[in-house]
Amino acid sequence: MKVGILGATGAVGQKFIRLLQNHPWFEICALGASERSAGKRYKQAANWVEDVPLPNHIAEMTVATCEPSAFSEVDFVFSGLDSSVATAIEGAFARAGIPVISNAKNYRMDNSVPLLVPEVNPEHIALIQSQSFTEDGSGWIVTNPNCVAVPLSLALNPLHKEFGIETVVLTTMQAVSGAGYPGVPSLDILGNVVPFISGEEPKIAPETQKLLATLNNGELDEPHFALQATATRVPSINGHMISATVKFKRTPKNINEVKEAIQSWENPIAELNLPSSPSEVIKLHEEERYPQPRLHADQEGGMQLHMGRLRMAEVFDISFVAMAHNTIRGAAGGAILNAELLYKKGILK
Amino acid sequence: MKVGILGATGAVGQKFIRLLQNHPWFEICALGASERSAGKRYKQAANWVEDVPLPNHIAEMTVATCEPSAFSEVDFVFSGLDSSVATAIEGAFARAGIPVISNAKNYRMDNSVPLLVPEVNPEHIALIQSQSFTEDGSGWIVTNPNCVAVPLSLALNPLHKEFGIETVVLTTMQAVSGAGYPGVPSLDILGNVVPFISGEEPKIAPETQKLLATLNNGELDEPHFALQATATRVPSINGHMISATVKFKRTPKNINEVKEAIQSWENPIAELNLPSSPSEVIKLHEEERYPQPRLHADQEGGMQLHMGRLRMAEVFDISFVAMAHNTIRGAAGGAILNAELLYKKGILK
Amino acid sequence: MKVGILGATGAVGQKFIRLLQNHPWFEICALGASERSAGKRYKQAANWVEDVPLPNHIAEMTVATCEPSAFSEVDFVFSGLDSSVATAIEGAFARAGIPVISNAKNYRMDNSVPLLVPEVNPEHIALIQSQSFTEDGSGWIVTNPNCVAVPLSLALNPLHKEFGIETVVLTTMQAVSGAGYPGVPSLDILGNVVPFISGEEPKIAPETQKLLATLNNGELDEPHFALQATATRVPSINGHMISATVKFKRTPKNINEVKEAIQSWENPIAELNLPSSPSEVIKLHEEERYPQPRLHADQEGGMQLHMGRLRMAEVFDISFVAMAHNTIRGAAGGAILNAELLYKKGILK
Amino acid sequence: MKVGILGATGAVGQKFIRLLQNHPWFEICALGASERSAGKRYKQAANWVEDVPLPNHIAEMTVATCEPSAFSEVDFVFSGLDSSVATAIEGAFARAGIPVISNAKNYRMDNSVPLLVPEVNPEHIALIQSQSFTEDGSGWIVTNPNCVAVPLSLALNPLHKEFGIETVVLTTMQAVSGAGYPGVPSLDILGNVVPFISGEEPKIAPETQKLLATLNNGELDEPHFALQATATRVPSINGHMISATVKFKRTPKNINEVKEAIQSWENPIAELNLPSSPSEVIKLHEEERYPQPRLHADQEGGMQLHMGRLRMAEVFDISFVAMAHNTIRGAAGGAILNAELLYKKGILK
User: Fold this and answer.
1) Which percentage of chain B shows pLDDT scores above 90?
2) What's the whole-number mean pLDDT along residues D36-53?
3) Cβ atoms of C237 and C176 closer than 8 Å
4) Which of A45, A110, C6, D201 is found 20 to 30 A from C180 (Cα to Cα)?
5) What is the mean pLDDT of residues D44-72?
6) Is the pLDDT of residue C49 over 90?
7) Looking at residue B69, which CATH number applies to its domain?
8) A165 in a structural domain
9) Using the beta-carbon criterion (under 8 Å), do A51 and D191 form an inter-chain contact?
């Protein structure tokens, strides 16, 4: 399928380009960015910050403005747009009949837009039918969650199914790549911890609740657990770490019952063999010093969820840490997995 | 007063030497370390890692073994000993009639040994009378808490007095200096987060409860709140950050009542004007991005407690972050403040 | 004396404010910044990044635009202006009869403007007489050098006097604070080395040659040695490290003769006892692992030059490393020392 | 071929294990380490620090002592031994008829031992014939150079062939992985630069001269250029950066002639298509901010040499920076490439 990238020069856009190299199904045919970049070759418009070379054929592509007319030949677009412009542009593409697989936050909480993590809530793709961007249903939007809600929902999902989430207290230790480029000034973070990330904490509860919702007669039925989050920035490069303590509706007898719930969880999309799926979705580390962002974030193509420190807790029921690559599993890679699911299911066509 | 340092070549020992430079009351007269260092000049025995020059007269002092006979001229000793040897050596000094102000963990939970933070529980020094190291009471031990329990108790103390602590969930982000020297290998922590610190988590609840205990008829009456801690290591140099969510026995009406409890708290040792006391014990930051280890850990000589992000929580009552310099307020500086209190109260004499 | 700060909200401006706290001679009375900041209180206009608290009376001062009319009450100004505006603004202040002690590069290579490091070329202040900003000589400009030329000239000065510099090959490892705030993105420098700093290398040779020039009949007679520099950025916070290999006109017999030249060098301003002077201008480290930015950059108030690794070389004559705090000795602190010299000499009055 | 690893639990040993996973020609059959590890399963003996999972079949292998009798089934061994034991152990293996491909420094400067970088001096493998470890020639030793000499020789080789090296002045900025594990304490290097690496500088000139030597009638004819090196440690993880200024016997007309010499250089082993060969041996970056360790060290499997900042110099002829992955190209990966060359040439059989 022919693919366009909106916001192609930004950090998420660059990650889309990197991850789509040699993709078996999707080929990049158009790149969109702001007026300032439009008309330039990509290599001149973008400050490439990935640690693999910029592919030559992408380097020489001319960047377009983010208007549907410039993307007439694509089958769908990935959006890495900034939230300040995503509402208008993504809406315009959907209305023009071009499906949008978006990493932006703007449509995430819209009732008719799936907020999708394929291993967590694949059935939510049915919501697309209720979208009204076009009369014939050809244009629609699917989103992926915030880079904390992704690993959190992957970790909570098997536990919620078995025990029912009642309360969550968490602290995040987030990598600098989460702020894009130029992002976090080095003077702010070298040898430091910043105990606040603007706009981050309020997204975590509602997105996680929407992800764990049940779809009943076309309506989402969300679990209403309490969640208290503190989001901090630390000097790691990739991989957001979450330290969580959780209370369940049904208390596990012991930690083995909790491990059993995680290990016996069945990945609902396993049999689809999607190209970006990790072979093992949840890696549960037994070594107390693991997982670590620098050692584990890139494993299985950056698409694996890493859990560790799983133990019964003095307060509530259990504590654990969870970690995933924030710009792959938590952003561009998650969006690509969404597109792969939608393609395999015949919705992208 | 003439002072000896036990464990003088280690990271805590070096910090004692640094902080006692130009101290108005205490003068270093003897340095003790392991057999390997004994007999050498201090500058040859120690790998000085402080960012101020090693004072010349200390550099030329000869290091002794940690035996009371080598410390006959001192009035008391500070101990920065490793826990593998502290039980025997500190006990021997106390039995020899030499008071020990210790940073080691070994005697912290002993019923007759004060675990002391002068602004939190100065009255606990009365426990010294129940010690039996010597018949005449000339030898005794006072300890300071773990480097997490120090800032935690300073932060919880005014809140406990006003609202009563019932439950605490916390995650720490701890600086590498907490592991001493050589301590954390750079390959483990550069651009990384390690979600475990050996032996750290189990100390936090009991030490904090002992610190907040009431002394009734010579016995400690401890509050028995539940506390769940996850201790992580991050690539900061000095300053342990704590992210905490707390439930009280009495729920505050709003965040202002909580701020009021902190701001109206009266430092019980304020009028003593101890040399190492910060002018403002608790600095409550209003800027959401503060406190930060690199910006604030060294303020007020590294003896200040920094709080921030204070807010009502979705779970329990409130959330906040607290941070203090781990090797000054949380170790050597805290021990020196303890000695200053004991001197002013006439117990060190 | 009453002092104004131009560019007061930037990184260098903040350092001026910090260093002038409790200065015995100079008091800050006016703060100037861009249109965007003008009219605001300083605490609202500036993103304070220093690791000491912003002084209250500065926090409440109203920021003015950088026009001489807004600075009528000051005796002189320090300039931390960006080079894009410094030519016009500094010139306007000088023409208005307000002396300018500038850290900007714009006037550094002007024949009538002293490029001043007080311990290196104090006699260059005589150049002020040849300036023509005002008829009565009341307005003039004095500059301090680039943050690499400062430590380089301090290190080369005693060697040049004894042996004559003929050739220098150097590589710098520069701290992130040299790029100001927000400056270097953390994604560019965490765990990395960037082998280029825009505009840095071409300043080093001409500024160092001007600093080492002899003043003959009011004209500078510059030494014309060859210098090849590679400037790199590394993930340190403060303190630029220089690795240099040098050929002299007269080859030293051995390394002791070189050390002797450094140790017997007499600081020409020693007897002035300027408040910002370090007690020991050049600290020559014997330990091979020293100097280090994190351990030594802040010593003696950040005004000391640190040399180390001094040895005879296989190529040319000697190799050494030199390091100084780039935003104190290499910027704001150097400018303040310049002002102190000019005040003591009766030129600032 | 069946392969053993000596020093299998150390940092270099772990890298051998990682890089030999899925190798088309070599299979690991035996692991050797110190007495302390011998008899344990590898997963218990080693503290695995690689950022890919430890392969299961390796994890379960039993570690042997480093004696030839325990390696009777292997065709040859890779050695990542510490230099304190490598002389005796490697010699014993060679005498036992087991070829040794070593990363240790001990035999590097032996006249009959090839110090080998396949793209630089493949013809040096003929030296093996002059070794006398065994009568039948079945046991011998081949070494790879120090992790600075590797990228330096790769960069200088085409220049030496065209212009003749006369003098080199260089400064290195070396990554922490070069010191192994636990290696550099984080307190020494976080936010810091250490201007000395013990034992590093003296290796660079002799190893580089041996690598660039011509083999005449079985004797090495070494170029005798002067080289002055300063080796520093910086807080990067992988990738040693070299900043070099070079004088040639024949001065290039301009920088294009230098580029031409690099670009027209022919890789003497290109046609062998060795599995670990990079497709492009020397990547010459045109962007001034490149190469960077974090962005480029892993490219082409960590086996590529990256050059940049190539320019005519004020002193000597040219300056440039060169960078390569220190533990892959500069250690284990280089040794594996050596083995591949020796296998393809029929010497390993």
Assistant:
1) 97
2) 93
3) yes
4) A45
5) 94
6) no
7) 3.40.50.720
8) yes
9) no
Note the pLDDT tens digit of each residue in C164-207. 999 999 999 999 999 999 999 999 999 999 999 999 999 999 99
Minimum distance, in Å, between the CA of residue D248 and any CA atom of chain C: 14
Is B162 within a domain? yes
Q: Is C286 touching D (CB cutoff 8 A)?
A: no
State residue C61's pLDDT score.
Answer: 97
Count of domains for chain A: 2
Q: Give whole-number Cα distances, C64 to B49, C34, C37, C40, C50, in Å.
A: 44, 8, 8, 8, 22
Q: Count the alpha carbons within 13 Å of D177 in the hemisphere toward its beta carbon.
A: 29
Q: Say if residue C109 is in the same domain as residue C180.
A: no
Binary contact (B50, C191; C-beta < 8 A):
no
Ranges of chain A whose pLDDT falls below 50: none
Residue A72 belongs to domain spanning: 2-145+332-344
Q: What number of C-beta contacts closer than 8 Å exist between B and C? A: 23
Q: Do C174 and C92 belong together in one domain? A: no
* Same domain flag for D199 and D304: yes
Spatial neighbors of D336 by CB under 8 A, at least 6 apart, are: D16, D19, D20, D23, D26, D78, D101, D276
Q: Does C230 touch chain B (CB under 8 A)?
A: no
Q: Does the pLDDT value for residue B2 go beyond 90?
A: yes
Question: What Cα–Cα distance (Å) separates residue D109 from each residue in A176, D252, D272?
Answer: 45, 32, 27
How large is the C-alpha radius of gyration of chain A? 20
pLDDT band at B49 (very low <50, low <70, confident <90, very high): confident
The conformational region for residue D217 under phi > 0 = left, psi -120 to 50 = alpha, else beta, is: left
**How far from each other are the two terminal CA atoms of chain B, in whole angstroms?**
8
Residue A156 is which amino acid?
A: L
In this prediction the ipTM stands at 0.96
Same domain, B128 and B141: yes
Please say if the pLDDT value at position C244 is more than 90. Answer: yes
Read off the pLDDT band of B200 (50, 70, 90).
very high
In a domain, C349, yes or no: no
Which residue matches tokens 């604070």? C177
Give the mutation candidate from B14, B44, B49, B51 for the C interface (greatest C CB count, under 10 A): B51
D178 touches chain C (CB under 8 A): no
For residues C161 and C299, membership in a common domain is answered with: yes
Give pTM, 2 decimals: 0.96
CATH number at residue A246: 3.30.360.10
C295 touches chain D (CB under 8 A): yes
D349 belongs to a structural domain? no
Q: Kindly give, in sequence order, each residue whose CB lies less than 8 Å from that of residue D259, ignoring residues fewer than 6 positions away.
A: D284, D310
Query: Is C226 found in the same domain as C155?
Result: yes
CA-CA distances (angstroms) from residue B176 to A242, B170, D234, D235? 20, 19, 17, 14
Same domain, A97 and A209: no
Contacts of B295 in chain C (CB under 8 A): 49-51
Say yes or no: A137 and A224 in one domain: no
| pLDDT tens column, B143-163 | 999 999 999 999 999 999 999
Q: Is the pLDDT score of D49 beyond 90?
A: no
